Amino acid sequence: MCFHYSLTQKAKALKARFNIEELDDEELAEYLHFHANGFAHPKMPVITHDEPHRLQFFTWGLIPSWNKDQASAKKIWNTTLNARSETIFEKPSFRYAAKHKRCLVLADGFFEFHTEGKKKQPHFIYLHEHAPFAFGGLWETWTDKQQGETIHTFSIVTTRANELVANIHNEPTHSLDNRMPLILSPQNELLWLSAGDESSVQALAQSYPSQAMQHHTVSHLITSRKENTNVAAVQMPDTSHNMGSLF
After folding, report:
1. 245 pLDDT above the threshold of 50
2. Is residue 2 annotated as part of the catalytic site, yes or no?
3. Which terminus of the chain is more exposed, N or C, with fewer CB under 10 A?
């Protein structure tokens, strides 16, 4: 699963990588995160199918358009941070978005936990040279009639874990169905936005190659409830931890 990720790139790099027409560092600054925690429901940068050259900022945790009120919205959005690729066309919360509202969720890394006995060691996972990339995502628009506010939200699609992520994210209860976020290759990003039928979308939901990824252990700052975890230190290698021969 993917409940923690990062995006720390400058506007120039994102414009070049994703062919975004207008973006500056001042506009982007408040949406950049060394650590975005899904359960805090931050607004994060996405690119939608209907505006592929514009960066938009949606709330993490999809609220379907048919949701009734604030109380039910708060219940559902902790359960829709991720969407399983195999069932997005079946689940009521996701099936409309899977057909009509797919997006790219911009990122440059994500965090997973490795179980060691009774302890969990966090790892930061990223592409070579810390390059920006896109998760496959779904988005929705919900109108809060109580507040008269329209809210745009998204979910990150997940797929089967590759070997690297499966070795890291080794929670025993997930061993038979280990997951990772759907990272799209650059050539598949526009296909994800434009694919017109279920089989075409499902064909894109492949595990990203392990050999194209790197990782290192990080401190337990990411799990702190008292300290600010959206700081550069959350991504720094934990040199005190011996990774042994697992990887």
Report:
1. no
2. yes
3. C
Domains delineated in the chain: 4-235 (3.90.1680.10)
Pairing of strands 149-160, 51-60: parallel
Amino acid at 35: H
- The residue to which tokens 């290698």 are assigned: 237
- Distance CA(8)–CA(168), nearest Å, equals 23
Tell me the C-alpha distance between 54 and 164, whole Å: 33
CA dist., res. 47 & res. 55, Å (int): 5
Tokens of 175: 């061993």
Where helices occur in the chain by DSSP H, the ranges are: 11-18, 25-28, 70-76, 95-100, 163-168, 186-194, 198-203
Euclidean distance between CA atoms 70 and 77, whole angstroms: 11
Average pLDDT of the chain, as a whole number: 93
Cα gap 188→169, rounded to integer Å = 25
- Choosing from 30, 90, 112, 129, which is the catalytic residue? 112
- Residue among 2, 103, 140, 189 flagged as catalytic: 2
Flag whether the pTM goes above 0.90. yes
Closest CA to 139 of 148, 151, 147, 127: 151
Question: Does the active-site annotation cover 116?
Answer: no
What's residue 247's pLDDT?
Answer: 47
Mean pLDDT for 28-34 is 96
First-to-final CA distance of the chain = 20
